[in-house]
């Protein structure tokens, strides 16, 4: 009888043991996402997802938190390659919510990237809901400050300002983001830190942050032309709006940063005609205000050349 039971157990064991192959693919995806990755890496990860899904469909799997992590990875990769779907994220969240042993950082991360996917898809209601869940999990369980929490605070401010028109809440989140990042923003050139001043309607604060970024870049002899262009273009754009919307005399400032932006763009040898045409037009208008016919003509000629390919 004992021999029969042992034989039955050995013969039937494969029926009760799930395949481990999908876990190996999941581990490979984790390695890809844990370091800086490019388009080829993401395509490779997507291939692993397809193989893992085939193995799971054929052999089944235990719907535990390891599987929940795989679902998060699947959702993340699909989002990154432009095939966002909420289903893997939502299934992952469901497993985590039912689990007696929760990893709240991982759960907040799932909510964050689900929110990001909705945000890119312009489903701002669901984006807001999941950014808020990420935010609240971090707050409730007093997690160490992390990028998912910080970015959620920023995105809540943006959506409240631009979509919900709840300017009071937008200001609250903006202030919180500024407080969270004030020690690293200037070192990292965190443009969201600058924009946060806009969401709390502090245009002077926004200007000052950009000016500090510019000084920081120049004083430290940093060699990153794309970054330098972005700083100068944003300053140019700020002074343009001050002239157009608020009728302030900021022509000298617009000229300074507009011409610097053109200089950097030309050195980069990038043919971004839309941006260059925009800057040429505003420079011509500012020089016209200053009664400088020579420079007005110069930028009008540049503009005609760009538009008509003369």
Please report which band the strand proportion falls in: under 5%, 5-15%, 15-25%, 25-35%, 35-45% or over 45%.
under 5%
* Category by helix and strand content: mainly alpha
Poorly predicted parts: 4-16
Rg over alpha carbons: 27 Å
- Could you report the average pLDDT, rounded to the nearest whole number? 92
Quick one: overall form?
A: elongated
Our count of helices gives 16
The count of DSSP E runs of length 2 or more, i.e. the number of strands, is 0
What is the terminal separation in angstroms?
97 Å
Q: How do the SSEs run, as a string of H and E?
A: HHHHHHHHHHHHHHHH
Give a structural overview.
The chain is mainly alpha-helical and 310 residues long. The model is unreliable at 4-16 (pLDDT under 50). The protein has 16 helices and no strands. The longest helix is centred in the last third of the chain and has 22 residues, at 225-246. The chain has helices at 2-16, 21-33, 39-59, 65-80, 87-98, 104-120, 124-140, 147-162, 167-181, 185-188, 191-199, 203-219, 225-246, 251-268, 273-289, 293-308. 79% of the residues lie in helices and 0% in strands.
State the gist of this model:
The chain is mainly α and about 300 residues long.
Itemize the secondary structure elements and their pairings.
Layout: H1 2-16, H2 21-33, H3 39-59, H4 65-80, H5 87-98, H6 104-120, H7 124-140, H8 147-162, H9 167-181, H10 185-188, H11 191-199, H12 203-219, H13 225-246, H14 251-268, H15 273-289, H16 293-308
Helix pairs in contact: 2-3, 2-4, 3-4, 4-5, 4-6, 5-6, 6-7, 7-8, 8-9, 9-11, 11-12, 12-13, 13-14, 14-15, 15-16
